Amino acid sequence: MEYRSGFIAIVGRPNAGKSTLLNAILKEKIAIMSDKPNTTRNNISGILTKEEAQYIFVDTPGIHKPQQQLGRVLNKNAYTAMEDCDCIGWIIDVTQDFGSGDEFILKRIQSLHKAVILIVNKVDCISKEDLLQRLLDWQSRYPFNEIVPVSALKKNNIDELLHVFYQYIPEGPQLFPEEMKCDHDLNFQMCEIVREKILFKTREEIPHSVAVLLESKEYVDNKLNLKMMIVVDRDSQKGILIGKQGSMIRSIRLAAQKELSKKCNCKVELELYVRVEKNWRNHERKIKEFGLDELNEDFN
Ligand SMILES: Nc1nc2c(ncn2[C@@H]2O[C@H](COP(=O)(O)OP(=O)(O)OP(=O)(O)O)[C@@H](O)[C@H]2O)c(=O)[nH]1
């Protein structure tokens, strides 16, 4: 078996299960998951090094119709990932009907002329008969190179999916060291942990667009001191985040602190601040400042 290595862009509508799939493949929590659409903003890459190949995954923000500046930047990132890869894994939620978001992706894929593997996700939620019907429906929409049903959540058929990816990446040497699982540095992952706790604790009240920035980081006496800034775009959101007598921010801080300690293997002291930046999602400069337009710099 020849050794192969290549880039696989995972694209799909918000909530299709991209992050869950990436985590199932990499067997480690590196992309954040939540039940809200569009929690994945940067192109988190996961790297899986196996005996036969190195699979480099580019996770993309959910493709959706751009409504604001931030939406446009997100879409641009997803598209660049699609153009630069060796093959595309288009993940769909099998329980959802074909919609305008799919139409949008389809158009893009048609113009790229790349191998496209349709990953039919959430098959645990549907009967065999319905699944068959859905597969036939999807098959008639595009000449996919392969169609692979999976359950990212239950980790079903993941090995088969890798086997399929293998066939669509080129022969070549290992591109990254074996122990490297993700190209994003720890700082980014730490901010994502805090953002995940915010989304989880505040439920629908804080939009997915909340930004978390690392202000400072220092080790003192075997303890990691972190200062992070949470940026929201309305005063009312600041109120929600802080909560009654600071109860919400405290609960976010404690939950994040616990996970950060596990991640960093040391005691962590986290300080959180909330800043209101009105309408920051519409300002390109701010988007840049928050690092949301960066695209896999290490790979380019
Ligand atoms: N039942 C079931 N649920 C799943 C499966 N895969 C993902 N989910 C759920 O679907 C929701 C969305 O999953 P994510 O992985 O966050 O989706 P995503 O596509 O990364 O979403 P964005 O970040 O918005 O792009 C979560 O609640 C997951 O638990 C699956 O195979 N079966």
Short description:
This protein has 300 residues and is α/β, with parallel strands linked by helices.
Structural domain count = 2
**Strand ordering within the main sheet:** 2-3-1-4-5-6
CATH architecture of the largest domain: 3-Layer(aba) Sandwich
Q: Any idea of the CATH class of the largest domain?
A: Alpha Beta
**SSE series:** EHEEHEHEHEHHEEHHEH
Give the CATH H-level superfamily of the largest domain: P-loop containing nucleotide triphosphate hydrolases
Which structural class matches the secondary elements?
Answer: alpha/beta
State the total count of DSSP E strands.
9
- Sheet-strand content, in percent, reads 15-25%
Task: Output the radius of gyration.
Answer: 20 Å
Shape: globular
Total DSSP helices: 9
Most strands sheet: 6 strands, mixed
Helix share, percent: 25-40%
Cα distance, first to last residue? Answer: 29 Å
Query: Uncertain spans, ≥5 residues at pLDDT below 50?
Result: 33-42, 294-300
Q: Which molecules are bound in this entry?
A: guanosine-5'-triphosphate
Q: What's the average pLDDT?
A: 81
| CATH topology (level 3) name of the largest domain | Rossmann fold
